[in-house]
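Observation: inputs received (chain + NDP).
Thought: call the complex predictor directly.
Action: predict_structure
Action Input:
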Amino acid sequence: METRIIDGKAIAQQIREEIREQVAILKEKGTEITLAVVLVGEDPASKVYVRNKKNACEFAGIISREILLPADITQEALLDTVRQLNEDPAVNGILVQLPLPKGLDADAVIRAIAPEKDVDGFHPQSVGALSIGLPGFVSCTPAGIIELLHRSGIDSEGKECVIVGRSNIVGKPMGMLMLRENATVTIAHSRTKNLREVTSRADILITAVGKAKLFHADDIKEGAVVIDCGMNRDEEGRLCGDVDTADCMGKASFITPVPGGVGPMTVTMLLKNCLDSVSLQSEETV
Ligand code: NDP
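Observation:
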């Protein structure tokens, strides 16, 4: 079987251009979009993520406001910063870069973000809205995967979908989204028995584990769509996913590479959430 590589970079770029057009239209009507990004401390990986988000905003015409705070900030001072951003009418989206330095309670900070500005989609209200089918922000990585499926012409309806990983930011919201797509959903995790039997049943396999090349051709069904969220390093230190992509070539029908698959979609969906925040916020004020 010929395996088609899903080019996440190209799809992400296409969506970013669409967003840029929408942002420009809003700007002409006098509406500007501002994302506030809060970075606490000096974590080098977090700094890179924040820089990527800033560059992506710049491309799309979204204003990014960086708020840099010292690693020894108190929980209360951090919560105050979030509250000020909540109340600032010029700010549409608030993102607190995770992980936070030791001693700070990330869950409390997420809960403090106004749900209508929660562009990461991590607030309990956003998660609840997704579960019961109400409008709200959806976590960016799973939302990006849905776009990858749609734009690759993959129909999920009635398909057996196995998601490996049950984190709050990827696995669980992914499960809700695939239900919304009318797939039959299984969420597997570290306690799943006979994991490889479970993954072999999947018409659509989505891995969000964080273990280099955990899955091989033997673990997937002939013709499966394989979506790999993993961002790992192999034994030579190269970036790789949870799936041994080369091994699955010829068996999967579609596969996302790492890098260049799911990764570029995450920041893209953050831009999309910032764009959507404008209509969500105007609905709130009606
Ligand atoms: P977490 O560490 O929060 O969750 C990992 C999940 O995998 C857990 O549910 C865990 O099960 C499960 N798991 C761990 N080991 C196994 C195993 N051997 N067999 C089956 N299940 C297992 O990770 P995240 O969800 O945050 O991220 C997952 C991966 O996706 C990481 O590589 C991360 O870097 C990447 N990622 C990529 C993004 C992108 O933009 N491309 C964005 C977000 C994440 P249990 O719950 O039982 O512990």
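Thought: report the result.
Final Answer: Residues 22 and 28 are 10 Å apart (CA to CA). The pocket of NDP is lined by residues 141, 164-167, 169-171, 188-192, 195, 208-211, 229-232, 262-263, 266 (CB under 6 Å).
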